[in-house]
Design a protein that fits this description.
single chain, 93 residues, mainly alpha, Serine Threonine Protein Phosphatase 5, Tetratricopeptide repeat, TPR repeat, cell projection, TPR-like_helical_dom_sf
C-alpha cells in the first residue's frame, strides 16, 4: 500500500503545482496558495512550490508568510536567487 501512495503523489504533485500556477495566473491567490500547500504536503521543502506560495502571499499582503517561505528555500542554499528576491520583496513592504 505504501508504494501505491508514492505512485499517487508522483502524479498528484505536478497536478497540484500546475493548478497553483494556473490559479495564480487567474488572480485567485488564496486558492492558488492552497494548491501549493497541498503540493508541499506531498513534497515538503520543494523550492518551486515555496516560491509559488510566497508569490501568492505577496499578492495577499501576508508578508510574514512570504518571509517564512522565502527563508525555507534558503535553508540549504543561501544563494538561491528566487528565495533571496522574495525575501527582499517581503522586507521592503
Amino acid at each position: 500500500a505504501e508504494n501505491k501512495s508514492d505512485d499517487n503523489s508522483q502524479y498528484l504533485f505536478p497536478a497540484l503545482f500546475s493548478e497553483g500556477e494556473w490559479l495564480f495566473s487567474k488572480g485567485e491567490y488564496h486558492r492558488a496558495a492552497n494548491s501549493f500547500t497541498a503540493a508541499l504536503d506531498l513534497r515538503p521543502g520543494d523550492k518551486k512550490c515555496l516560491i509559488g506560495r510566497a508569490k501568492c502571499y505577496m499578492k495577499m499582503s501576508q508578508f510574514e508568510n512570504v518571509l517564512k517561505d522565502a527563508e525555507e528555500t534558503l535553508k540549504d542554499d543561501k544563494s538561491f536567487i528566487k528565495g533571496l528576491y522574495q525575501k527582499a520583496e517581503a522586507l521592503y513592504y
